[in-house]
Amino acid sequence: MELVELIILIAVAITFSNILAKIIPTVPIFFIQIFFGILVGLSSYGRTLNFRPEIFLVLIIAPLLFREGEHADLPVIFKNFGTILSLAFGGVLVTLVAVGITLHTLMPTIPLAACMAFGAALGPTDAVAVSSITKSLKIPPRVMRILEGEGLLNDASGVTAFQFATIALVTGSFSIWQGSWRLLFASVGGALVGIVVVWGKRKLIRLIEQLSAQDVTAYLLIELLLPFVAYVFSEIIGVSGIIAAVVAGVMQATGRQKVTLFQAELANVSTATWNTIVFTLNGLVFIFLGIEISQVFSPIWESDVYANWLLLLVIVAVTIILFFIRFIFLLLLNLFSAKKSKAKSWQEILLLTFGGVKGTVSLATIFILPTSLHGELFPQRSVLLFLTAGVILLSLIISLVVLPQISDGEAEVPVDEKGLAILSEVKEELKVDQLDETLTENEQIALKAVIQTYENRMWDIYTVAMTESERQEVQEIQALIIGIERDGLDESFRRHEIDGNTYRFYSRFIANFQHSVGQQILSFLAFWLLVVRRIIRVILHPKLFFERRQNAPKQMQPNDLNQIKKVYLRNTKLIKQSLSSLDGVYDEKIIAHFLEQRQNMMGQLELNDFMAAVMIRQDPAYIKEMLRGYYLERKVIDLFETAGTITTFAANEYRRKVNLLESYAMGQTGNLPRVPFFRKI
């Protein structure tokens, strides 16, 4: 039962790490996961947890590297093959030797083979960690492609080198020539196994198709089994299971796929499943890092075997050696290339140097160290785990601090002008539809709401193109508006200026707006304004909270609308005053957008259309007009593609988005209420 509870606890930790990463986007998710891992490790469940190295290899490293191989951009890798190959193999070898000798010099009691294994574990770079750090930075595409390609290859080379160093540690002997031959045999043999496994999978799929037994679940399970089959079979015959998993992933991605509805459904399910698995496995590694830190920190720190200053010195020295060796290696490679200006070359070298952070694979690899040697406990294993954790953390912190300073600033996404043009054309077509005198009053209101939806989508395109800081400003202003709306509504109710019906109607409007904000990635300040203030409000005014929980009436009465107008007008004045006072704090264009949006809402309210436009979104007439909008959107995309305004690739991407929106809209039709939410006043 304890194992089940531990699994649930770790699953909860991974889930909440993802949520917190969205709330606090400035903090990389792996730091949050390490923190949660420490908390788990300090619990009674974590203290009894023991890691089995072979399970770590087959259940975590193999599927992670398989997926990396499946996502490998082979043309890009071949384009930068010289640099990537040098870093992936030459860089790992140099790192292994330099770090191993450094550690053995500072801590001579640790066997040289164990020191070399430590160096091999710190050879691979973590592309996921780099992406997390640089997601909001402007990094040249070539640098990111090199880091991703290097990450794919040096994961395999680093783990394979680590395995041979571990063999030398266990057996006590090692021959450079014998080791080189075994490494070559293991690498080539592993690659062949990966190819054979994928070939066998394709034959099996073909047999299933001939038997007319196609099934998405079965196909997905077969794909999920590939890295495990490749790894286990390779280990049985004595070749590299890691390289087999990587090659299997590459081969899996290179196969030709038929364009059928079945394949499309399989691709969607497979992508979603693999994304979840990869995120979970990466999270597991950093959770385990936190658990391991909590388990080994006190014993190592309080031990008399190694002085604490020596442990810190080793962590700092090894981290410096890692970056220094990488810098020198890249500098030598750059001497053979004169393709770029000196300034650009220096920037590229520095970005590649500090982009070589250590993470998932390094940590997962060091866990493979045997717990015993020659029938006795391996006493230095805990020390090596502690040092690895320290080096990983320090390298992540250094990169987190240095990369923003040497990059070209915040990442900027160009505004999708073509997408804006498509949505604008659809909006104009819908405005023409409004002139149709045969439309019912309900259909007119639905049409206005659909037009508003397209205007919101156009604003979303602008939002996506904003920098991280600009997006946070938008979210914080939205959270501020919601806070003012809530406070104004509660104050009106406490003063008995509105009744319970009006209070619940207006609360529903605020809830709809808050839901749209909640679907975005909130900054920490926005989260504070939305959630913490709401908790305080519930504690101070529980009566208002329970009043809001009651069901609103089905229809709005004339008196309700008059009361809503008064509350909305008062809140609008407060919001305008608040936004005007923020000039110089937030971007003027963003503030102007919200002021204009508020003014438009006031106009709708004066025409008695505002609440109707909110409530109509639950009406079948709204779904009908939305489907009309999607039809027009496809039509405009076709016209733009035919005219050469957009490429076929771009047109297909726009169509994919329309299909997703339409599928979601159709899925909502079964959840619509059977009675109207309002009647026209």
Automatic annotation (TrEMBL):
The keyword Ribosomal protein does not apply. Keywords: Cell membrane, Ion transport, Membrane, Sodium, Sodium transport, Transmembrane, Transmembrane helix, Transport. The keyword Lyase does not apply. Its main location: membrane. The chain crosses the membrane at residues 29-45, 51-69, 81-103, 109-131, 152-177, 183-200, 236-254, 266-289, 309-337, 349-370, 382-403. GO terms for biological process: regulation of intracellular pH; sodium ion import across plasma membrane. It is a multi-pass membrane protein. It is found in: Cell membrane. One of its GO terms (cellular component) is plasma membrane. Residues 14-399 form the Cation/H+ exchanger transmembrane domain. InterPro entries: Cation/H_exchanger_CPA1 (IPR018422), Cation/H_exchanger_TM (IPR006153). GO terms for molecular function: potassium:proton antiporter activity; sodium:proton antiporter activity. It comes from the Bacteria. This is Na+/H+ antiporter. The lineage of its organism: Bacteria, Bacillati, Bacillota, Bacilli, Lactobacillales.
